[in-house]
Structures are given as structure tokens and as C-alpha cells.
């Protein structure tokens, strides 16, 4: 399940991509299907990095016909690290992905500044955060949802054009925007209504089964439905921006 649309990133063989807050590596896995991409994932969590490595190794062992890595894919690495102090030189990467990360950080602007440091001038940034309206409903339904940073919760809602304003302050030109995962919004509303850890209540259980089925089968009907609903209740807003040369 990708939040970022890779077709918008303009990746060519030899490009270097950093996925900051890579989690279990869902966006890293997509780089294994594209020729010559050097991909690096960084996450603070040991479990997340271990999961990303396991998933990428599994892909590398599969044939492309079975969803595995293509023969001419580039190298990859996944490592633990803080978004406030990245272990890379200035302008090390051609593309930067920061997907569903900033809402977890107390110092989001500091993290974005540090991430921008390692992106080349003219490089592409893809950043996503939860959209204000669906996120506000989650906050209204559950006191557990807006949890402290220590437990991985969401610490803010990005209202209006706050994220776009941050990017412009850091010298980015925004070149694209879209919404994603509309079908996931009702799932999170149900979880917030019945309890975030209550996976057995039947509305949550049934909707989760539906999402898994949709993810695996990708039927045209649900793809069309999500496209129609994304502008209304898309769970995430995704911005694409180019770093300036100044």
C-alpha cells in the first residue's frame, strides 16, 4: 500500500533515494521494482528496521514474476537513526520520502530542516501527513488516538496549508498534491469509536477484512470508489516539492 506515487518522483537509474521514517519498508520495496535506484531507509525503531530488512531480503529472493526484485535493481540499506541528526553528508540524495512521519514528531520543523539538508538542490521531496478533517474525527472519537511521542501517537493536526507553508519556508517549490487512502478513513473512525486496541468487535473486524481483500485483489470497483472519495475523505495529503538552489 503506497502513499507516494512514484511516477511523480522522476527517478532515473543511478538516483539515490532516502526514505525517512521508513517503517517496515513499504516505499523501499517499490524501489526494488525500478532499475538502478540506490535506496536507503532510516527509522528510529529497531523493530521497524528489522522488518524492512526482512521484507527487502524476501523480495530479493523472489523472481520479478512473483513480485520480487528486478534483475537490474540498485543496492539498498536500512538502518536505525534519528530524523534530527541524519548520518549523511549534505546533498547526498536525489529524492527524499517522508511519509506519515511528521505528525509523530514534537519538532517537525527541525526534522524537516535536517532532512532537507541531505537532499540535493533540485531534488524531489514527497511528504505526506494525515489530512485535517479525517484526522480531526479520529481525535474527537478517541482520547487514545492523540498519544504522546513516547508511545508513537499523533501530536498535531496539520490544518489548512501549514505543511505547504513549511515547505515554502525551506525553499521548496510545490509541484504536486493529491489525497490518498479514503477507504482507510472509516476503518480508523471505527477503531477510534470502539477502542484502538479492540480488534475483535465485529464492525472493525469486518472492515479490516475488506481492506485486506481490497489490497490483495485491487478490484476496479473499489479503485474507482477510492479515487472518487479521496478528495473528500482521503486519510492522507501528499505534497511533492522541488528543493531550490538558493
Keywords:
Rossmann fold, seven-stranded mixed β-sheet, alpha/beta, globular, 7 strands, 246 residues, 8 helices
Summarize this, please?
This protein is an alpha/beta fold. It has helices at residues 26-31, 46-61, 108-117, 132-141, 162-169, 184-194, 202-217, 220-233; strands spanning 16-20, 38-43, 76-80, 93-99, 119-130, 172-180, 236-243. Helix 4 packs parallel to helix 6 (184-194) and helix 6 (184-194) runs antiparallel to helix 7 (202-217).
By oligomeric state, this entry counts as single chain
Which sheet architecture does the biggest sheet show? 7 strands, mixed
Secondary structure tally: strands: 7
Q: Label the structural class.
A: alpha/beta
Overall 3D shape: globular
Helix content: 25-40%
Q: What portion of residues belong to β-strands?
A: 15-25%
Under the CATH scheme, which architecture would be assigned? Answer: 3-Layer(aba) Sandwich
The CATH class turns out to be Alpha Beta
Number of domains: 1
Distance between the termini: 35 Å
Task: Explain what the structure shows.
- The protein has 246 residues and is α/β, with parallel strands linked by helices.
- The protein has one domain (6-21, 83-243): Rossmann fold (3-Layer(aba) Sandwich).
- Helices cover 37% and strands 21% of the residues.
- It has 8 helices and 7 strands.
- It has a 7-stranded mixed beta sheet with strand order 3-2-1-4-5-7-6, with helices on both faces.
- Strand 2 (38-43), helix 2 (46-61) and strand 3 (76-80) form a beta-alpha-beta unit.
- Helix 4 (132-141) runs parallel beside helix 6 (184-194) and helix 6 runs antiparallel to helix 7 (202-217).
- The radius of gyration is 18 Å and the shape is globular.
